[in-house]
Prior knowledge:
The protein is α+β, with helices and mostly antiparallel strands. It contains 7 helices and 12 strands. The site of heme C (HEC) has 29 residues, from helix 6 and helix 7.
Amino acid sequence: MDGAGRRTARHLLRPALPAAALALAGCEGRQSALDAAGVSAQEILATSWILFIGGAAIFLMVMALALYAAFVRPERFPGRRAWVIGGGILFPVVTLTALQIHEFALARRLATLAPETAFVVEVTGLMWWWDVRYLVPGQEPLRAANEIVLPAGRPVELRVASADVIHSFWVPSLAGKIDMIPGHVNRLPVVAQRPGLYRGQCAEYCGAQHALMAFDVRVLPADEFDAWMAAQRRPVPEPPTPELARGRDAFFALGCQSCHAVRGTEADGLAGPDLSRIGARASLAAGTLPTRVESIAAWIAGAQHIKPENRMPSFDVTDSETLHAMAAWLESLK
Ligand code: HEC
Ligand SMILES: [Cu+2]
């Protein structure tokens, strides 16, 4: 290679290397089917590897045969008829049948993952957020939004549905994708294995803000989960400072309670996400913003700017101290 050629090669490779590193980095993390943290995701990943490696092997074999056939005279190609019958008919019939049987068995295993589930989480998709309800046997239903908390190692049944259009529920790190259909409940058993924070995403185009319809799944060690659940049920405490009390009063003065519920206060609206523990959640407005006082304030003042056409109006709170106090009160709800 001459100097110029070497330079060109280096020129071409230089951006390719970080790009390859980025592509590989994309395989792990909190939203990746290649970094399985749940029983179903493991099974799906194993099947993906079978398909990928098998497909690659068959591709290489066919290419090798095609090359060979291009260079050898037709009458000297060994076993011509055998290749057509064996490679063209028998091989696909046998492999595709085996895969089909494997696939049926897998689908059945995924649908009946655990004979008994610890509790049910109802997840309802709305344009463009997620209503969550924990139904634990012997306890009052517990409402939340945009974040699902699960105990590691305990099978849980998700019951997914929609309140408006078709959405699709997908947490690639934990399980397969399942449609959320209006008027129909789909069941998805999940066993999360590894504690951590995972990201889910609506996987069916559902309108203008489909791309801003994500959520978090927090997997806690099983013993921490029980403490979490007990803490959730406690009503939110009285605001400990005058600023936070002012924030709470502004919340009620502006009528936020007509759409939002906060446990232990008279806010019991159902049209928007439950805000009882909003400050403890990883993200705001269905994965749109990080949960911080400033982002909550930005959301209240500019909901329609941040997520146009969503069902919360922007609030023109001209007094920035009141706006900040309201955001601080919400952020303090943990
Ligand atoms: C007309 C109903 C309605 C009113 C009134 C309303 N909201 Fe909302 N709010 C919503 C909806 C719907 C969403 C979800 C939007 C989305 O993500 O698509 C939302 C989302 C939010 C979120 C993010 C919730 C989450 O789970 O991440 C916060 C915080 C919030 N609203 C605060 C307020 C405050 C404070 C007020 C009063 C100033 C208010 N809202 C008034 C309907 C309303
Ligand atoms: Cu959606």
